């Protein structure tokens, strides 16, 4: 360990692994350390099932759960947007070759106590009970306007300047009612609260376009999920880093981040010190440089049946818009199953999550749990949502934010790209990687 | 000749750091050997495909190296996923690397459940100079593994001896496995013959 590196990365969560890969690819000498024995930190998929039960101090699972090592259970539920940033990163870095994906079968939205499928084509839209006939017509004109508008061509704006008007004005232009706004903002634009309504419309338009572009790629839903669980993602980027010369150390406690004149100079474990110019880490490695801004509650539910009213889908997402249940942030439900090699045959894993708003978070997720039907086993975790108070420009310590309650990876990637830019002073050059890898089939 | 797309069979290299996995990878990739332990020379190389023909069947072996992750940490479990074959490598002049094989074997059967497993004693050029692992010990190891091991080889990356033979034999095993699995044709009674298609002229090859 007593060597010199350009960068030391602490923690092998997804963000740190992507950063490690990007740094190695850019020619930096990288040492990547985790205090745990396994890769992935909070982004790991826990296997075998006995370890999951052990982690939550529950008695061992009985034989009805099948073979323990057929399970790979995520701690943080997320899907990939088929046309989103993470998929772009995966393709450009060639990490896709380590993974196999399945399209998520359907996306649902909660309205007045029951769930409806988010329509994916005109036929489904016409028969959908999400809105009345006239509202459907108005919504259709709205969607067509969004699809047709080009940011750089004001002729396509039809008199509405999306850069100088807020989203509320756009909703008014098409006379969309509150329910439709709820649906658009939360099930299509995937906002977690209603702050977006007062922000400029283009931000929301981009998100709706991302949704429909993603949907257009695979048809059933805009979401993808990797075989064997999300834990495969950090591992893929870790391998990329290693292939480009990154050195890996697991099971290595970090005792000190060594600072000299306000700047990081190394990392100490026991009596070994590795020197470096920069450190990249998750909040748990630098408690004195982060602050808590909230909490996220996540409930893992093991079930032997799919979610009722979802046509027996083997994977789904359900969004419960905040207003529908009198809250300030949405509740998310996601479901994956044996078809993704994350559970034994016949088993399903649902996850209900949201941003904590009260002293009694378990009650807050009840509307989500109530949709699931009988649950065999529940594991609840509440984690702090931490953000850095140090931007790293002086200390050269670059800290990621905790994983938020969103159900996809867009914010994850934005954080990573932002950190990379802050640390290196340049945008990540996607083209640097691809052709060097000698990969023929892309 | 290779115009028909043949599905790739992922083959992974497993074993302790320094036993010669990257050297086997390099021999497979471009038939070279680097004597110094200059690990940097394969940077950016992830996996390599090579086509074999077993009688009338084409098969592509796609060889994967660990990326050196085993040096201080363990290799990620995702390295093993989707592998059809695993080569368990140790160095014939290093008995420790032999005695630690069972741990690597355990990882293979855990994470690459359906992979066929092959045992490879590398650095056979050093066998007469500094012998540490005998043939009897290798055979005993296979017996203890309840026939989990589909083939045993001795190779030298330095001289190149045994390398091609090993991959040709692995190709044959995988063709046989596919054949019986898919039941595409009746099993041939004749022995398989293997020839390796030289791809050196292929411009898509890296180096
Ligand atoms: C979540 C959602 C809900 C919708 N709800 C309604 C509704 O309630 N009432 C209604 O009239 N219309 C609804 N639509 C839109 C509807 O499905 C049609 O896309 C729209 O009416 C345009 O039809 P078209 O025949 O002009 O275009 P088409 O020729 O059908 O399609 C033009 C382009 O849009 C893409 N596309 C088609 N359908 C969709 C789609 N559903 N999502 C994303 N891209 C698509 C196609 O791939 C093509 O590139 C909804 C769309 C979405 C995404
Ligand atoms: N004499 C001899 N040396 C070898 C042979 N194979 C590899 N080496 C050397 O052993 C060292 C480690 O090899 P390497 O391929 O990097 O091992 P890895 O860590 O398993 O990937 C290097 O110095 C190689 O040159 C061999 O067959 N004979
Ligand atoms: Mg190596």
UniProtKB/TrEMBL annotation, chain A:
Protein species of origin: Camponotus floridanus (Florida carpenter ant)
Q: Does the keyword Translocase apply?
A: no
Going by the entry's taxonomy, the superkingdom of the source organism is recorded as Eukaryota
| Any one GO cellular component localisation term in the record | cytoplasm
Q: What does this protein do?
A: Regulates the GDP/GTP exchange reaction of most RAB proteins by inhibiting the dissociation of GDP from them, and the subsequent binding of GTP.
User: Can you say what this protein is called?
Assistant: Rab GDP dissociation inhibitor
Keywords assigned by UniProt? Cytoplasm, GTPase activation
Q: Which family does it belong to?
A: Belongs to the Rab GDI family.
Give yes or no: UniProt keyword Cytoplasm.
Answer: yes
Short name of any one Pfam family annotated for the protein: GDI
List the subcellular locations: Cytoplasm
Q: Name one GO molecular function term.
A: Rab GDP-dissociation inhibitor activity
Which Gene Ontology terms describe the biological processes this protein takes part in?
Answer: protein transport; small GTPase-mediated signal transduction; vesicle-mediated transport
Q: What is its main location?
A: cytoplasm
UniProtKB/TrEMBL annotation, chain B:
What InterPro entries does the annotation carry? P-loop_NTPase, Rab, Small_GTP-bd, Small_GTPase
Record keywords, A-Z: GTP-binding, Nucleotide-binding
User: Pfam families from the xrefs?
Assistant: Ras
What Gene3D superfamilies is this protein classified in?
A: P-loop containing nucleotide triphosphate hydrolases
Q: Which GO terms describe its molecular function?
A: GTP binding; GTPase activity
Alphabetical list of SMART domains matching this protein: RAB, RAS, RHO
Q: Does the keyword field hold GTP-binding?
A: yes
Entry's PANTHER family?
A: RAS-RELATED PROTEIN RAB
Q: What is this protein called?
A: GTP-binding protein ypt7
Q: Which organism is it from?
A: Camponotus floridanus (Florida carpenter ant)
């Amino acid at each position: 360990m007593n060597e010199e590196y350009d960068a030391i990365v602490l923690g092998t969560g997804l963000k740190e692994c992507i950063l490690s890969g990007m740094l190695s690819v850019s020619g930096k000498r990288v040492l990547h350390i985790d205090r745990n024995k396994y890769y992935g930190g909070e982004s790991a998929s826990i296997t075998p099932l006995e370890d999951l039960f052990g982690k939550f101090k529950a008695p061992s699972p009985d034989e009805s759960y099948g073979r323990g090592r057929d399970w790979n259970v995520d701690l943080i539920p997320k899907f990939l947007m088929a046309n989103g940033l993470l998929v772009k990163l995966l393709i450009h870095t060639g990490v896709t070759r380590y993974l196999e994906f399945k399209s998520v079968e359907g996306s649902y939205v909660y309205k007045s106590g029951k769930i409806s499928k988010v329509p994916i084509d005109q036929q489904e839209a016409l028969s959908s009970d999400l809105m009345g006939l006239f509202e459907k017509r108005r919504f259709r004109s709205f969607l067509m306007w969004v699809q047709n508008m080009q940011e750089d061509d004001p002729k396509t704006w039809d008199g509405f300047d999306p850069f100088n008007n807020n989203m509320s004005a756009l909703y008014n232009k098409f006379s969309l009612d509150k329910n439709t706004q709820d649906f658009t903002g939360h099930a299509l634009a995937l906002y977690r609260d209603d702050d977006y309504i007062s922000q400029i419309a283009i931000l929301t338009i981009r998100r709706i376009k991302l949704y429909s572009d993603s949907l257009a790629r695979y048809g059933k839903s805009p979401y993808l999920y990797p075989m064997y669980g999300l834990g495969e993602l950090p591992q893929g980027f870790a391998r990329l880093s290693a292939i480009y010369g990154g050195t890996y150390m697991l099971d290595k406690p970090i005792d000190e981040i060594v600072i000299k004149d306000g700047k990081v100079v190394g990392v100490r474990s026991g009596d070994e010190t590795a020197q470096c110019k920069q450190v990249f880490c998750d909040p748990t490695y630098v408690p004195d440089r982060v602050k808590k801004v909230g909490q996220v509650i996540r409930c893992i539910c093991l079930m032997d049946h799919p979610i009722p009213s979802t046509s027996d889908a083997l994977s789904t997402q359900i969004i419960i818009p905040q207003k529908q249940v009198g809250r300030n942030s949405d509740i998310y439900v996601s479901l994956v199953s044996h078809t993704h090699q994350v559970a034994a045959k016949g088993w399903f894993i649902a996850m209900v999550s949201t941003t904590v708003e009260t002293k009694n978070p378990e009650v807050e997720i009840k509307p989500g749990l109530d949709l699931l039907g009988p649950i065999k086993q529940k594991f609840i975790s509440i984690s702090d949502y931490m953000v850095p108070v140090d931007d790293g420009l002086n200390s050269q310590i670059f800290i990621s934010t905790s994983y938020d309650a969103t159900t996809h990876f867009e914010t994850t990637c934005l954080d990573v790209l932002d950190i990379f830019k802050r640390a290196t002073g340049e945008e990540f050059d996607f083209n640097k990687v691809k052709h060097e890898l000698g990969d023929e089939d892309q | 000749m290779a115009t028909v797309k043949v599905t790739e069979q992922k083959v992974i290299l497993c074993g302790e750091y320094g036993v010669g996995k990257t050297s086997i990878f390099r021999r497979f990739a471009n038939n070279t050997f680097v004597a110094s332990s200059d690990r940097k020379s394969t940077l950016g190389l992830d996996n390599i495909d090579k086509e074999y023909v077993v009688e009338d069947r084409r098969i592509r072996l796609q060889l994967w190296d660990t990326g050196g992750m085993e040096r201080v940490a363990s290799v990620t479990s995702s390295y093993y996923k989707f592998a059809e074959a695993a080569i368990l490598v140790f160095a014939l002049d290093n008995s420790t690397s032999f005695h630690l094989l069972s741990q690597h074997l355990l990882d293979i059967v855990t994470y690459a459940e359906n992979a066929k497993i092959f045992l490879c004693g590398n650095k056979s050029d050093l066998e007469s100079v500094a012998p540490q692992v005998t043939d009897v010990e290798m055979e005993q190891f296979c017996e203890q593994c309840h026939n989990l091991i589909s083939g045993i080889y001795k190779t030298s990356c330095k001289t190149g001896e045994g390398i091609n033979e090993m991959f040709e034999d692995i190709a044959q095993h995988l063709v046989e496995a596919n054949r019986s699995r898919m039941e595409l044709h009746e099993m041939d009674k004749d022995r398989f013959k293997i020839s390796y298609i030289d791809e050196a002229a292929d411009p898509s090859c890296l180096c």
